[in-house]
Amino acid sequence: MVARVEVTPKAEEMIARLKALHGPLMFHQSGGCCDGSAPMCYPANEFRVGGQDVHLGQIAGCDFYIGAAQFEYWCHTQLIIDVVPGRGAGFSLEAPEGVRFLTRSRVFSDDEVAELEATERAA
Known about the structure:
Blueprint: E1 5-7, H1 9-22, E2 25-29, E3 39-43, E4 53-59, E5 62-67, H2 68-74, E6 77-85, E7 99-107, H3 110-122
Parallel strand pairs: 1-6, 2-5
Antiparallel strand pairs: 2-3, 4-5, 6-7
């Protein structure tokens, strides 16, 4: 089954470290505030998810959301969450660790789009 969001092994290691420090986490793909369009990591339930947010799935056991307007831009791609050295300008939990989460992407194939559409219609 194709997923709308995936995580690299390095990012998964950082998420495990952050979970040990902060407990359950969640992610929201930023729509341009603070650090551009970056995946932001927060303690679970400390970021208010609204009716305009789309649940893309989970990475490393953490719910991952994106704003509906951003989803329109990204709906044809799989988001791949990675971690790289450097500090972002946002409020994401990884910043004090000297790293930042980064979104990479790849375009879904026609078969993957059809599978996603069928799965989402059935839900």
